[in-house]
UniProtKB/TrEMBL annotation:
Residues 202-401 form the Calcineurin-like phosphoesterase domain. The keyword Electron transport does not apply. Residues 472-515 form the Purple acid phosphatase C-terminal domain. This is Purple acid phosphatase. Residues 71-183 form the Purple acid phosphatase N-terminal domain. Its EC number is 3.1.3.2. It comes from Gossypium arboreum (Tree cotton). It is an enzyme of class 3 (hydrolase).
Length: 531
């Protein structure tokens, strides 16, 4: 049965690649060399706009473990070493209450049994385990304590190789089912065939469609650009609520329903147990709690290649001939900050003969033309854009805005053939609805004083001083740097073909998983745009 499924997956993958090749031969995909392109706004399809419905996790928790200490919420992530992969999972159940007995992390072993596909799982790797808590003020009876989180670094892996593995404690026994993954290829001439990119997932029926379509496209790597479980949109009693109803009186703390993370992790296992998944924090991961702790669930639930950056909120990694830089928008980013200094060192050390492609990702977009979150990250752009431009970043991925948008090549709000292409993919499912209004439409331009990010503060939203919008905070038409925008749920796939060409495709949930709504070849010009 496993061989049959594997054969079917390979057949589907070949069929997808064949379709892609047919498109290339027929010339149906434009290239950035033909740009800049005239701005396009796709009319809203109101048949997909409606009440967002959460999955019924309380009545039927997805993939709930059948036996005690059976691994759940299994996920893979890349390490800083090409030959290593992190395997993470959770055993035992979370507990709610102030007077509870936390599970003992030492009571269950953290073991991964693995081997090359079809050659047996004869290798063992052991790791560490821990728990975390989400604490509310005044010994609240709704305090949350997690199950046991396990983390194992599997080392000595060969590049571009299919492996099979099980995780758990073989002495109980309580082992997972057998899962499979493929390691990243070796640079510089090889690349992961498909990199899936999405933000704003949540746990709704839209999320289910997004993830099922994404998995059907067989990505080798997934990037989640923030706003993951949306646990902070739920009060501590588990009901969906707003900030006013969920906030503590005379306190900056925000209620958050941590079991939502567990439901989300179980659901996402259909992707994360087989596809290495790299995440970066969004504002919905802040989850401020007692003692001013933030990003607690995010820091504990995911493994990061953060050896050199020293932070889980910003880091970098290689995947074949691509160097990814994951930046934190909710941690200091000014030129005197640790993050900025690390970014300078990281970019300086990038060898473009080894990793020709340089891709950056963070949560709030710099070049979104939607009304929601318009120019919210302007201070971050002012501090960091020049550095990224100087080092020749090719593509930028963002989330935050619940819509899709792709820019022309742009730098400092000016069309520039050497600027990166900015792509916003923040509509993976979320617990809210799609963003529909644009800041350039009559009456939609936000008050500049209301645009700064609430968590980071600062104000950099001044009026434009040049160009068609000079003297104004917003354009009065779709800006020339915005090439394509659409309010639909979906995700994207990046296929790097060689050192200069990469195909980007945007897939909408209302279409079949193999039908792209927006596609373009992003072409590097290293001779014209040296870094």
């Amino acid at each position: 049965m496993v061989l049959a499924v594997e054969s079917l997956n390979r057949l589907l993958h070949c069929w997808i690649l064949l379709i892609s090749l047919i498109f290339v031969v027929n010339g149906q995909f434009p290239t950035t060399l033909e740009g800049p392109f005239k701005p396009v706004t796709v009319p809203v399809n109101y048949s997909i706009i409606g009440q967002v419905t959460s999955l019924p996790v309380d009545d039927n928790p997805p993939l709930s473990p059948e036996i005690e200490f059976q691994p759940q919420q299994i996920s893979l992530s890349l390490s800083s070493d090409l030959s290593s992969v992190w395997v993470s999972w959770i055993t035992g159940e979370y507990q709610i209450g102030d007077d509870i007995e936390p599970l003992d992390p030492q009571s269950v072993a953290s073991v991964v049994q693995y081997g090359v596909y079809k050659s047996g799982r004869n290798n063992l790797a052991a790791g560490s385990s821990f728990i975390y808590s989400q604490q509310y003020p005044n010994e609240d009876p709704n305090n949350y304590t997690s199950g046991i989180i396990h983390r194992v670094l599997v080392t000595g892996l060969d590049p571009d190789t299919m492996y099979e593995y099980q995780c758990g404690d073989p002495s109980i026994p309580a082992m997972s089912e057998v899962h499979y993954f493929r390691t990243m290829p070796s640079p510089p001439k090889d690349y992961p065939s498909r990199v899936a990119v999405v933000g704003g997932l949540g746990l709704t029926y839209n999320t289910s469609t997004t993830i099922s379509h994404m998995a059907a496209n067989h990505p080798d790597l997934a990037l989640l650009v923030g706003d993951l479980s949306f646990a902070d949109l739920y009060c501590k009693n588990g009901t969906l609520c707003d900030f006013q109803n969920c906030s503590f009186p005379q306190s900056p703390l925000q209620e958050t329903y941590q079991p939502r993370w567990d439901h989300w992790g179980r659901f996402m296992q259909i992707l994360t147990a087989t596809v290495p998944t790299m995440v970066i924090e969004g504002d919905h991961e802040i989850e401020k709690q007692a003692d001013n702790l933030t990003f607690t669930a995010y820091n504990y639930r995911f493994a990061f290649p953060s050896d050199e950056s020293g932070s889980t909120l910003y880091y970098s990694f290689n995947a074949g001939g691509i160097h990814f830089v994951m930046l934190g928008a909710y941690v200091p980013y000014d030129k005197s900050s640790d993050q900025y200094k690390w970014l300078e060192r990281d970019l300086f050390n990038v060898n473009r003969s080894v990793t020709p492609w340089l891709v950056a990702a963070w949560h709030p977009p710099w070049y979104s033309t939607y009304k929601d979150h318009y120019r919210e990250a302007e201070c971050m752009r002012v501090q960091m854009e020049e550095l990224l431009y100087k080092h020749g970043v090719d593509i930028v991925f963002n989330g935050h805005v619940k819509a899709y948008e792709r820019s022309n090549r742009v730098y400092n709000y000016t069309l520039d053939p050497c600027g990166p292409v900015h792509i916003t993919v923040g509509s993976g499912g979320n617990e809210m609805n799609l963003t529909l209004e644009h800041a350039d439409e009559p009456g939609n331009c936000p008050d500049p004083s209301n645009t700064p990010d609430r968590f980071m503060g600062g104000f950099c939203g001044f009026n434009f001083t040049s160009g068609p919008a000079a003297g104004n905070f917003c354009w009065n038409e779709q800006p020339e740097y915005s090439a394509y925008r659409e309010s639909s749920f979906g995700y994207g796939i990046l296929e790097v073909k060689n050192q200069t060409h990469a195909l980007w495709m945007w897939y909408r949930n209302q279409d079949r998983y193999s039908v792209g709504a927006d596609g373009i070849y992003i072409v590097r010009q290293p001779d014209r745009c040296p870094s």
